[in-house]
Design goal:
It contains 4 helices and 4 strands, in the order ααβαβαββ. The protein is α+β, with helices and mostly antiparallel strands. The protein folds into 2 domains: about 1-30, no CATH class; about 35-110, 2-Layer Sandwich (Translation Initiation Factor IF3), CATH 3.30.110.150. It has a 4-stranded mixed beta sheet.
Amino acid sequence: MVKFLDSLLGRSTPSTEDDYMDLDLEAFEEAEASAPAMFVKIAVLGDIKESPRIKDEIYNGNIVIADISRLKMDKVMYERVLKDLKEVAKDVNGDIIGLGDQRYVVITPNSVKISRDKISGVE
C-alpha cells in the first residue's frame, strides 16, 4: 500500500516484476460473449424513405415495432410500405402483425413467430 501511495504522490521507487500482476480477462470475454442475440427496436414511419432502415434491422436479426399511424393519411403510401414490410418478413422467414387498430406493426426476423392468441382472459 505504501508503494502505491508513494507512486501516486510522485515518490516512486524503481518497479520490479513483483509490482505487476496478470489480469484475468476471462470475465471480460464472457461479458462480450453474452451480448444479446437480438434487439427490439422502435420506429416511427412517416414516409417510404424510412423503410430501408427498418428492413436493415430485420435483416440484422432484430425485432421492430413500427408506428405507422402517420402513413394512414396517404392510403397509397400506407399500402406500399406494408407490402414492403410483409415482403421482408417473408424473405427472412419471419413474421408481421398489426396492432392497435393497425396503428403499429411488429416485424420479426428469422425463427421468431408472433402468436395470434391473446394471453388475457378478456376477449
